[in-house]
Write a structure and sequence with these properties.
By secondary structure, the protein is of the alpha/beta class. The protein folds into two domains: 6-229, TIM Barrel; 324-402, no CATH class. Helix content is 37%, strand content 10%. The longest helix is centred in the middle third of the chain and has 24 residues, at 188-211. The two termini are 46 Å apart. Keywords: Iron, Iron-sulfur, Metal-binding, S-adenosyl-L-methionine.
C-alpha cells in the first residue's frame, strides 16, 4: 500500500479525534490580525463546532497528530491492539492544514490531540512543534487547544502552554480503580501531578503579567479535562465528587463528560451497551449547578437515588427541590439571590432580572412569568404578591406533573 495522501490522513485522523469532547474555545485572550499583522483571530463568528459563553459558534479543526499508540487502554479505539487504519501527520502538515482551512473561512482555530508514538516525549515534541510553526512562522493568532501528555517531560508541557490558548490533560476515568483496570499504562498520580504543574504555571504567568507588560502568556484560557462515563462501574456520585475535587484542586475551567461509546473489536471487560446519553446531560446539569448556582457537591449528591445516580426523567435541580420541599415556597419579592437560584425553572439570568425588577415594584405572578422562559415549573416553588401555591408544593404527584412528557416519535413524521 502506497503512502496516504493528506486528504486520506485527514479523514482517518479527524474521525479518530471525535471521541474527545473537551474542545470548547471559550475564555481565551483576545487576539486578531487587524493592522495587517498576523493571520487569524480568536474573536468573531467561526470540522468541529464549539460554543463560547455568549453563544457564538466557533469552528475548530479537530484532529489527531497520529492515531498510532503504544498504550493499550481498553476503551480507546486507537489502542495498540486495535485493528484500525493508522495515519500520521507531520507538524508542518498540521500547520499547513490549519492555515489552509482558516483562509477558506472554514475554521477559527485548532484542537490537536494525539496517540502516543515512540514515546510520550517524542509525541509531545511533535505537537509543540506544530503549534510553534503556527505561532512563530505563520504568525497565526487564532485559537489553539493542545491535548497534553501527562507522561511527558514537564518542560515540554510548559512549552505547549506558551503556544496554546488552552491545554488539557484527560483524567480518563472517574476512579483510580477504573483507571488501573481499563488503562493499565496510565497512572492517576502522574496525571494529577501534571495538572498541578500546569495550574502553578498558569498562576505564575498571571502574576508575571501583572508586574511585567511583556511577560509571556501561558494558556490564558486555562486547562480542562475529560472523564469517560459508563465504561466502568463508577456512579454519578463518584463522578460528581471527582469533578468537584478537580475544580477545587486544579482550578479547571471545565470538566467534560463523554458517554462511553462501544468501539469495534472492543475488549471483553467493557460493557456491551453505551450508557443513555441523557445521563451525560444530567451530569452536565449538575456541573452547572456547582459552577454557577452555588450548589455544593453534597447538595447534588442529595438529589441522587439510593444507587448514587441522578434521576434520568427530571433534572438534578428539580430532584433536589422535590426532596427538600420544606425550603419552599420562596417569596420572589424578599428571598435572597442564593435561595432564588434553588427554584426549579429559574436560571441565573431570570434571577438577576427578578432582583433588578423588585427594586422598583412588588412582583406579581404574571410579571415573574415575563422574566422567565416558563412559569409552569416555577409556580409550585414561589410566592408572589398575588400568588400562594398552598397545597401545590406538597402534592404527591408533583414530580409527575413537572417531569417532561414522554413522546413516542413517529418513524415517517414529516
Amino acid at each position: 500500500m502506497g503512502p496516504l495522501s493528506t486528504i486520506e490522513k485527514l479523514g482517518i485522523l479527524a474521525d479518530a479525534a471525535k471521541y474527545d469532547a473537551s474542545c470548547a474555545s471559550s475564555g481565551t485572550a483576545k487576539k486578531n490580525s487587524l493592522g495587517g499583522k498576523g493571520i487569524g483571530s480568536t474573536e468573531g463568528m467561526g470540522i468541529c463546532h464549539a460554543y463560547a459563553p455568549d453563544g457564538r459558534c466557533i469552528s475548530l479543526l479537530k484532529i489527531l497528530l497520529t492515531n498510532h499508540c503504544i498504550f493499550d487502554c481498553h476503551y480507546c479505539i486507537n489502542r495498540k491492539s486495535s485493528n484500525v487504519r493508522r495515519a500520521r501527520f507531520t507538524p508542518q502538515e498540521v500547520a499547513d492544514l490549519t492555515i489552509s482551512f482558516y483562509k477558506r473561512n472554514y475554521i477559527e482555530g485548532l484542537f490537536l490531540s494525539s496517540g502516543i508514538i515512540k514515546s510520550s516525549n517524542f509525541t509531545m515534541e511533535q505537537m509543540v512543534e506544530a503549534a510553534r510553526i503556527l505561532r512563530e512562522e505563520c504568525d497565526f493568532r487564532g485559537y489553539i487547544h493542545l491535548k497534553t501528555i501527562p507522561e511527558a517531560d514537564p518542560e515540554l508541557v510548559h512549552q505547549a502552554g506558551l503556544y496554546a490558548d488552552r491545554v488539557s490533560i484527560n483524567v480518563e476515568l472517574p476512579t483510580r480503580k477504573g483507571l488501573t483496570r481499563l488503562a493499565p499504562d496510565k497512572d492517576a498520580s502522574q496525571i494529577e501531578g501534571a495538572m498541578g504543574k500546569v495550574k502553578s504555571d498558569i498562576i505564575e504567568a498571571k502574576d508575571a503579567k501583572k508586574r511585567f507588560k511583556h511577560a509571556p502568556r501561558f494558556a490564558p484560557a486555562g486547562q480542562s479535562t475529560q472523564m469517560i462515563i459508563g465504561a466502568d462501574a463508577a456512579s454519578d456520585s463518584d463522578i460528581v465528587g471527582r469533578a468537584s475535587k478537580l475544580y477545587g484542586g486544579f482550578g479547571l475551567r471545565r470538566v467534560y463528560y463523554s458517554a462511553f461509546s462501544p468501539i469495534p473489536d472492543a475488549s471483553a471487560v467493557l460493557p456491551l451497551k453505551r450508557p443513555p446519553l441523557i445521563r451525560e446531560h444530567r451530569l452536565y446539569q449538575s456541573d452547572w449547578l456547582m459552577r454557577f448556582y452555588g450548589y455544593q457537591v453534597r447538595d447534588v449528591q442529595q438529589a441522587m437515588g439510593k444507587d448514587g445516580n441522578l434521576p434520568l426523567d427530571i433534572d438534578p435541580k428539580l430532584a433536589w427541590a422535590l426532596k427538600f420541599r420544606s425550603v419552599f415556597p420562596l417569596d420572589v419579592n424578599r428571598a435572597p439571590r442564593e435561595q432564588l437560584l434553588r427554584v426549579p425553572g429559574l436560571g441565573v439570568t431570570a434571577v438577576n432580572r427578578i432582583i433588578a425588577a423588585r427594586r422598583h415594584r412588588t412582583l406579581r405572578l404574571d410579571e415573574v412569568g415575563k422574566l422567565t422562559v416558563s412559569i409552569a415549573k416555577v409556580r409550585p416553588f414561589i410566592c408572589a404578591a398575588d400568588w400562594r401555591p398552598t397545597a401545590l408544593t406538597d402534592r404527591a404527584d408533583l414530580r409527575k406533573m413537572l417531569a417532561p412528557k414522554q413522546e413516542q416519535l413517529e418513524l415517517f413524521a414529516a
